Here is the input.
Amino acid sequence: MPNPTLICGPLAFDRAAGTITLSGRPLELRRREFAVLEVLMTRAGKLVSKERLIAEVFGFDEPVAPNAAELYVARVRQKLGPDGPRIRTVRGLGYLLEV
Amino acid sequence: MIPTWRPSLRRALLTNLVAPAIVLAVFLGIGGMVLIQRVVETTHDRLLDGSVLAIAERVGVEDGELTVDLPQVALGMLESQSHDSIYYSVTYLGELITGYKNLPLTGFDRLKAGETGHRDGSYRGKPVRIGVQARQVYGRPGLVLVAVAETVQARHAVEREMLIGLAVLEAGLIGLIACLGWYAVDRGLRPLGELKREIDARGVHGGPNLSPLDLSRVPQEALAPALAVNSLLQRLDLAIELVRRFTADASHQMRTPLAILRTHLDLVRRLGSETPAGQSALDEVDGAINRLERLLRQLVTLARADEQNIAQPVAENVDLNEIAFNVLSERAPQAFARDIDVQFDRFDGRAMIPGNSVLIGELLANLIDNAIRYNRAGGMVLVRTIVDATIARVEVEDTGPGIPEAHLARVFERFYRIPMTNGPEGSGLGLAIVKALSDRLGAEIVLFPGPGGRGLRVSASFPLARRDSERSS
Here is the structure.
């Protein structure tokens, strides 16, 4: 049985309730933003390539704008705030949620 | 086990020498036979002529009748050791004057006066040689034919004797050639035998002696293989020396962390693990174990790269871009943990090269590990893939201290470390592994100073996969 709550530093993802909290306060996230953060949290501390992020967030069928990943990551970053965990953009490789 | 067929110098030499000699001897024999027959014929005919002349000079006319006063000496000249029979006849116009009847004289009637002729014939069932002289006798219009015939036993006996002599001479000559050839091979190859004994004698007492063999007495023709043996010995010597040094270095490398382990475990035992000093001792233990682990991993990689088996001709084509991407992605978090930024400049497209993705990955991992380990906080690791007409290249660039020119030549040696104060822990195996793997993969590794003369840029070039194989993949 996987732990129903995934913790990355101050971030907690409650799978059962479908919510992500930052230092106990729930984050207001849109559907895509939520999916992006979920993918990054499940691979926290590891690189997630842009292709993989797009595939997991949008599926393979939807047409996706080339900068979609960057766009949603930027929004999530904004919502995490300056004191929250950092999402690193690695040029040529992808994204990484620092723990 | 005796091989079914092995070329033999001796056999080759004898075949190439004796066979032509035999052919030559046969021709000489035939020529000699003709010559002997001619010489014997000429000399014997001359003797025959002597008898004919002796008789012919006694032919005269007495009271109008042809008479011959036969001298005993005339026929005595011909009597020899052999038991040849002598016949003679003196005829005038086919009519016998004296001597034996019916000597075969056909063909001699064309002789002119004073001429002598010879012919083989047969008389009384035996082969004979006949000598005939035609002679003009005073007062007679026709020619008197004086004939002496002799059976040919003596001639044949002489011929036989000379032929046997010739044959014996030739056989002796061929035998001599064979013997000399045999002996020459023996003598020529003797230094090789000595070489063999020298090699055999080695390695018996106290370890293998791999010093070069003394080739001063080896004949010119056998020098090439002997030199090859010497060069093999030299390489073996080097290989053994390398293994010896490697083992010594490896054990030395392991001894240091093991000593740390022992000391600090001792500390923990005495102080207890709960005290701050005990805790820091446990941290040291942890670090030593990490170092040991890394060293062992590197040694295994090196051994694997050295193995011939994994160097089978590569059938698969792999994408260098993808391997570089995967390896860098895997290592990037380690860089971030040291406050080092990472960037991947990727060639736009596929970079297909023939090779084994595990080995290529191992090579890149070592380069990237080095770039992270020998770097500075706030520094940068840049990995770049480039494809041109014939090669695919990965470049790994760091912002570390770089490699001073004096050490460039030696950094690929196993366990070679650049003396550095405050340098990171290392085994000195990273670049040795890179070298071994690149040799295996046919890649070329070149070290450059980094951008602006700082840091290090390592370029690994791989030959591109051929077009047709790329299409089929």
User: Anything to note?
Assistant: The interface with chain A takes residues 325, 328-330, 332-333, 336, 342-346, 383 of chain B (CB under 8 Å). The CA atoms of residues 406 and 418 of chain B lie 10 Å apart.
